[in-house]
Amino acid sequence: MTTASPTHSLPCVTDGELLLYRLFEIADDIDVVALRCLKMPHATRLRPNRISVFGSLREVLLVIDLGECQLPVDDGSIISAPAELILFTFGVAAVCWRVGLGNQASASPSPVPWADLAGQATALSRSAAITDTAAELIRTWRPILNPALVRPIEWPAHESYMLVRIFAFEREVTPDEMRVSPDLARLLLGEPQHWRPANTMIQRIAQSSISYSDADLVVVEWDAAIELTNDPGEDVPHLLAMSLALALEFQRFDSILEQELNDLYNHGANLAAGTLWGRTRRSRRALSRIHRLQIDVANFVDRSENALKLVEDIHYARIYKLAIERMHVATWRAAVERRQKVIGEFSIMVHEAAQTGIAHALEFIIMLLIMWEIIAAFLH
C-alpha cells in the first residue's frame, strides 16, 4: 500500500523572476578579443558576466544586455521583459528573458499565487512564439557578431530551458518544505494543478536538489529548474546555461558524426566505382574531412572536461555536476565518443582499401615494365 503524496500548497511568491532560455549554435568558436572590439548597437552593451566565484570561468562566456524587449506569447499577448544574449566561447549563443514576478514585475507588482506562476511558467517555457522571436534575434545579431565568429555555422536545432528564481514567499518556506511539495513537482514537470504526483516521483525530484544553507535550494530537472535564494546573482543561471550549451554542442557533433558515418558507408559501398586515381582522390578527401572532425570533437571533449575544473567553489561545482547529469550531457558525450570510435575504425578500413588499390596498381606497372624489358631484350 502506498502513502498518499503530501497535499500542502506553496504560498504566493512576492519576489522572484522567471528566466526563459533559447540556445542556438552560431559558430565553431567565438574570438573573445575580437568580440570585445566590436561596436555594439545603440541601447545594448557587452559586459563580462557577474559570476562571483568561478575564477577562470569568467572567460568562458560574455553577456550582451539587450535592454527591455517585447516578448510575444502564443496566446497573442505581449510581455515586456529585459533580455540578454549570452555568448559561450565554444560557439553557442543563448537568448535569455527575465520575466519579473511579484515585486520584480514591471507592471502592477503584486504577490503571485503559486498556481498562476506554474501555469504562466509552463506556457512560456513551451511557447513557440518565444522560440521564433529568439531565432529572429540570433539572425539579427549574426552580421554584427560575424567578425568574432570562427567558422560560422547554421544548425537548425535549438535547446529550451526555464529557471524559476524565488527571492521571497508571502510566508517563510523552508527548503525541506519545498522538496516534498507536489506544487514543486507540478511546476518542474509542466503538469496541471489537478495532477497528483506519486511519492516516488516526489522523492526522485528531491534527489535532484542541493542546499548550502537552511534558506536556499536548487532543484534541477531536464528542461526546468527552480532556485530559492535571497541572493539574485548570476552564478546558478549561468551554470545552468553552460550545462545546456554543452548538451547542445554534443548533440550537434552527434548529428555531424551520424551524417559522416552514412557518407563513409556510401563511400565504402562505391569504392570500386570509377578509376583508381579518382577513387584515391575521393578517399583522401573523405579521410581529410574525418581527421578534421576528429580533431574538433576531441578538442571540444577536452574543453568540456576542463569546464568543471573552472568551477572553483565546491557548492557550485555540485550544482554544475547535477545539471550535467539531469540534462543528459554524459549520455550525449558517450554517443559522440561511440560514433567517433566507429568512424575511426571505418576510416582505417577506407585508408587500407585505398592503399591496397594503389599497391595493386604499382604491382601491375612493375610487371608491365619487367615484361617490356624481356620483350625489348628479345627483340635486340
Structural class: alpha+beta
Strand composition percent:
15-25%
Order of neighbouring strands in the sheet with most strands: 3-4-5-6-1-8-11-10-9
Helical stretch tally: 10
Shape designation: elongated
Work out the count of structural domains: 2
Protein described:
- Helices cover 50% and strands 22% of the residues.
- By secondary structure, the chain is an alpha+beta fold.
- The radius of gyration is 27 Å and the shape is elongated.
- Helix 7 packs across helix 9 (314-326).
- The longest helix is centred in the last third of the chain and has 51 residues, at 329-379.
- It has 2 domains: 13-235, no CATH class; 240-376.
Helices and strands in order:
Elements: E1 13-25, E2 27-30, H1 32-36, E3 45-48, E4 61-72, E5 78-88, E6 92-102, H2 114-125, H3 128-145, E7 149-152, E8 158-169, H4 175-179, H5 182-189, H6 199-207, E9 209-210, E10 217-220, E11 224-228, H7 235-269, H8 276-310, H9 314-326, H10 329-379
Parallel strand pairs: 8-11
Antiparallel strand pairs: 1-6, 1-8, 2-7, 3-4, 4-5, 5-6, 9-10, 10-11
Structure keywords:
alpha+beta, 9-stranded mixed beta sheet, two-stranded antiparallel ribbon, 11 strands
Short description:
50% of the residues lie in helices and 22% in strands.
